[in-house]
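Q: Given only this backbone (165 positions), what sequence would you predict?
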């Protein structure tokens, strides 16, 4: 398990690529071939990838955690609410095989904006300043795992993201 914390950036990118591959595979299997994936050049609005299919553009913030993790909340940037069909996808993965699933989804139906985050708790920095004080991060909110919809398969998630056309 030490490799998961020692190489967390590597793992994060790996899970992102596996996730994108799974979405592309669904598009291929469905003979849809319309899914396009883009990445922002600058990370300032809280999303990791932009995915478009069936005329729906999704700005997706990806979160990943291994199956059995006790993480109960995730930090979400409020700018994601300003993006068309913004959403958050929490990917659970097997820490030995890196198989993906289940998936947890926070967002609205295709074409609708992300639900408001304004009433959620304001996140604090994980590290304190010189005095130990952990300052608030006014653009970041804490989203509890209970706010997500559990989806067992990538197929279910694909339908949540882009509809079933």
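A: Predicted residues:
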């Amino acid at each position: 398990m030490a490799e998961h914390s020692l190489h967390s950036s590597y793992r994060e990118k790996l899970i992102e690529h596996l996730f994108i591959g799974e979405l592309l595979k669904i598009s291929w299997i469905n003979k849809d071939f319309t899914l396009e994936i883009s990445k922002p050049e600058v990370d300032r609005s809280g999303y990791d990838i932009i995915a478009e299919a069936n005329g729906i553009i999704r700005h997706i913030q990806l979160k990943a955690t291994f199956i059995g993790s006790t993480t109960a909340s995730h930090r979400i940037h409020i700018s994601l609410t300003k993006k068309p069909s913004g959403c958050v996808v929490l990917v659970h993965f097997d820490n030995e095989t890196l198989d993906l699933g289940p998936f947890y989804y926070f967002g609205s139906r295709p074409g609708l904006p992300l639900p408001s985050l304004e009433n959620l708790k304001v996140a604090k920095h994980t590290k304190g300043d010189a005095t130990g004080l952990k300052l608030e991060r006014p653009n970041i909110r804490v989203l509890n795992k209970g706010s997500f919809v559990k989806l067992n398969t990538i197929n279910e998630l694909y339908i949540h993201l882009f509809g079933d056309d």
